[in-house]
Each structure stands twice: as structure tokens, then as C-alpha cells.
Amino acid sequence: MIDGRLADAAADGEESFPRIKTGNPQADEILGGGFPCNSINILMGQPGTGKTIFAQQLLFHNATGGRPLLFVTTLSEPMHKVVSYVQRFDFFNPGRIGDDIQYEDLGAALSERGPIALSDWLSHAIKTRSPKVVVIDSFRAIHDLAISADETRRFISNIAGLLSAYDVTTFLLGEYTQDDIRTFPEFAVADAIVELARQPRSSRDERFLRVLKLRGSAYREGQHAFRITASGLELYPRLVAPREPEKYVSSVDRISTGVHGLDDILGGGLLAGSTTLVVGMAGSGKTTLALQFALEGVRRGEQTLYVNFQENPAQLRRAIGNLGEDPDALQRKGLRLLYASPVELQIDSIVVEIFDAIKSGTIRRLVIDAVGDLGAAASDSQRLHDYLYSLIQHFAARGVTTVLTLESGEGFTGSTLAHDERFSYMSDNLIYLAWSPLKVGHRTIRVVKMRGSAHERDIRGFEIGAEGVRVL
Question: Which end of the chain has less Cβ packing within 10 Å, N or C?
Fold first, then answer.
């Protein structure tokens, strides 16, 4: 998912700077290959955002024998809790504790002697044990022990000098805020600053990782969603558009929709690699039309991905059966069904999953039913726009012909899409389904837009029967 320029820069960075891998391939991708070795790095965020889990996942990944890795607690979580909780994760390996990964608690010493206790311990540990990695959790607690700002600044300067003089990669964890970045001296000496944040929503929390600074190295900017799972942090790097959209080659091949009469008013079918938005009120036939498009692809031997937020798997299988098809047989022939509940929908995870599916190069048709659910799940409308735009550009670059459905709150008026314009202008083709204002119970269809192709502009009637949508 990394674009060409960033991939080149990341590759160059890996040659120039040896890296400490995080144990999470997606995090390494965001960081341009990982954290630079012999660096000072800050992991910041409020309590419960995943800082300690992220740091320990990194430790266990790098515990390969040889030089030890040290994890020291200050005045934050007690050591026995840290060790107890890490055992619940898949990456935990008890055989690494003791020689490879060493835990120490400096809480009592810090309470008695102040910050100097950490300085003395760190100096002795580096000289006698030569650690490969040191994690200090929480480093921000030092500010609560210092007598004055000047004392803190001198302490940080001494620590930075000590760490820079030896081949050790250091991670300073803390419950820092954005205001702390401007005032605390450790941010000035840090080579990398990574923020982990949690944003509450009505039904769940959303977590994001953001790289604020990575000295001398390329990295992926922006917010990258993640979840905390049994495996540690599960990251979804922010999707970006392809590097060189100007090199796209438009196809003149036509793709049959599988809908009787629709190919005729489309000038022979949809252009290969195009994106079509099907808009209509509830019950207007959007899902049926989209299903017919997907099933026609399978009949023609094309790998097809159907992404669904509306009907659960049982309902979707019933809808396929109502069209006279066997869902199991279709899946064996190349139909892939991807369902996500709109209640728990996280835009980052589903977009990454869709992208991973088309990255294989085998998917030729794709349906997303319905993009309105993505809009409802997105806490940031601009973030949704960027994701959809990037996705559509990747579809075009890979020759994937796509149908998106969108429920509209208004009947067909022949006017623009109003609040739905953000979806329509990103699509090559726009089809309206509506209830006829002249005949009760009758449906109408109109091709409003079709880039690069002649098409019929008149309003047509259509009906839904045992074989699906049929244009009259």
C-alpha cells in the first residue's frame, strides 16, 4: 500500500540506516522500514492507547539472542502487572525472559533519590550489559520528580548524551499531550515521535497511530487506524492513491452488466476498469442490480468480490438463491463475499481488506453495497473522501470494474445529487433507480452520466422478477 516514491525513499533509508523492526509489518511500512538503530524514540499517548503493548511486541520480536533488551518501569504501572499482562498476547515467549528480555522496576529508587536514580541505573546498565534496546515506561513521570525545569533540562541533556554515545536504541514511553511537545526538552532530542491516540465514538473507540517525527527517514504521514488484538497491535496503514495516475491506459472493452436491457442503454455495457455509482431509494432494486453484475462476472469466469454492509451473510445467500443461483457453487467458481456489520464497521480495516484483495491482481469485478455505510462509519468526511478516491484510482489502475450502491433519501428529480455529490463525481458512471411519479408501484432507471461513452439519456421503466432487474 506504500506508493512508489515512499517505497523508493524507504528502501534508500534502509540502506543508509540499519533498522529496528517493530514486529508488526504494517508499522514497519508506516515507519519506512522500522525505527533507526541507535536512536531515541518517544511513544506518546493517553493511558490505554497501547504504548506498552507496542513496545513489548517490539522487544519480543527483537529478542533473538546476543545483547539483552531492557524494559524498566518508573512510577507508572507496577512491574508485576506489566509482566502479567504481556503473557496474554500471542507474541509472548517465556523462554526469552531473563537473558534476552530483562525487566526492572525503579519506582522505589526514583521515589527515594529522584531522577538521578534513573541516570545512574542507565549508565551502569549500558556499560555492564550493553543492551540492544532500552524501554523506559513512563519517562514522563520524571517531570513529577524534578525540582525545577532547569534540573529537568540538564537531566534530559545528560541522558541524551549517554544514550547517543553507545549503540543502543531507546524508547521513552509517556502519557504526553500535544502541549508537552512544545515545552518538554525530550522532544527536542528525540529522533522519532510516534503518537497513539484513542477517539471515542457512540458505540466504540477508534485508535490511531501517527508519526509526528522521524529524523532522516521517509515515513507515511497521517492517521493510521489500529486495533489491539491477541496478536498485539493490528494496524491499517492509510491508503494513498497510485503514484502515477497519468500512465493509466483506458480500456475500450465492454463489460456486460448481466441485466437484461441495461447493456443496450449503456452503449454495449460498462467500460472495463470504470466505476459505476447506482443511486436509489430503499427498495428500488440497487442490491439486485449489483448482484446481477457480480453473478454475470462469475458466469464469465471472472474473479468477483462482493462487499456487503446491508444484508448479513444468510440474507445475501437467500438473495442469490432467489436469482436462481447456488451460492456455494458460485463461491467455488470465483465469487468472494466480504461482509462487515455497519454497527462495528471501521472504514480503515475494510478499505485495507478490499485493497489487499485487489492487490493480488485476480479480481476483475467488485461491488460495494453500500458506500453510504462507509460514510456513516467515518468520523471524518474528508478521510472518507480520501480513502474512496484512492480506492477508485487503484481499481482503475488494475482494470477492476466496480459497482457502488448508494441509498438516496429522495426520489428521482433529474437534478444533481446534493449531499451525495462527493460520491458521484468520483465515479465514471451514474445510474439512478427510482419509483415512477406517474405510475404507482412502477420503477424507473436513467443513466445520468457515462464518461467516455455514448449512452441513452431517457428514463426507462424496469421490473424485478425471478431473474432480477429487467429494463423495459
Answer: C
Residue with cell 469466469: 301
Taking the CA atoms of the chain, what radius of gyration do you get in angstroms? 28
pTM of the full predicted structure?
0.75
- Sign of the torsion formed by the C-alpha atoms of 309, 242, 356 and 88: negative
**Which residues sit opposite 296 in a β-bridge?**
none
Q: What DSSP line would sit under 207-239, residue for residue?
A: EEEEEEEETTS----S-EEEEEETTEEEEEPPP
CB 212 within 8 Å of CB 195: yes
Say if CB 400 and CB 273 are below 8 A apart: yes
CA dihedral 405, 394, 22, 170 (to 10 degrees): -110
pLDDT digits (tens, 9 = 90+) for 285-321: 999 999 999 999 999 999 999 999 878 889 999 999 9
- Superfamily per CATH, domain 245-471: P-loop containing nucleotide triphosphate hydrolases (3.40.50.300)
What span, in angstroms and rounded, lies between the C-alpha atoms of 241 and 1? 9
CATH of domain 4-236: 3.40.50.300
Cα dihedral: 462, 280, 269, 386 (round 10): 180
What stretch(es) of the chain map to CATH 3.40.50.300?
4-236, 245-471
Q: List, for residues 372-406, the tens digit of each pLDDT value.
A: 877 776 666 777 777 788 888 888 888 999 999 98
